[in-house]
Write a structure and sequence with these properties.
With 159 residues, this protein is α+β, with helices and mostly antiparallel strands. It has six helices and five strands; from the N terminus they run E-E-H-E-E-H-E-H-H-H-H. The protein is 35% helix and 16% strand. Strands 2-1-5-3-4 form a five-stranded mixed sheet.
Amino acid sequence: MPRIPITLNVNGQAYPLEVEPQRTLLAVLREDLALTGTKSNCQAGECGACTVILDGAAINSCLCLAVRAAGKQVVTIEGLAGPDGLHPVQQAFVENAGVQCGYCTPGFILSAVAYLDSRPTATEGELLEAVAGNLCRCTGYGGIRQSLRAALAHYKEGK
């Protein structure tokens, strides 16, 4: 199959690539760019483990063709922390036991960041609805909910 030349802008860096038209963004991130923080699980958009931020919106990278992401801004969990340390939502998950095995954590964090960046005054219910597409098989969601509350409080204080 012929390859298509594209440029993916991932975590602030441009990557010129040649990809097959049917390859997903998830496959390219994990296999070509070695950004394995984006998890591969259901391959059907059901679990949220593959969530990335594409031009400010949380998406399931397993459902997005890489060619559709060309020229857009992609943020993965690897690109979220800054030079001063973890992103506040990442920090909230660390401080509030929002992880167990950690497999679902990047998806939860990126879904929350995308939502809170666009709606910093959201209610807790709205934030919980925004991450409803992210599933965890290990926890009872208690630590995740507490982490989301802490992240929401941080945003409401003015980020």
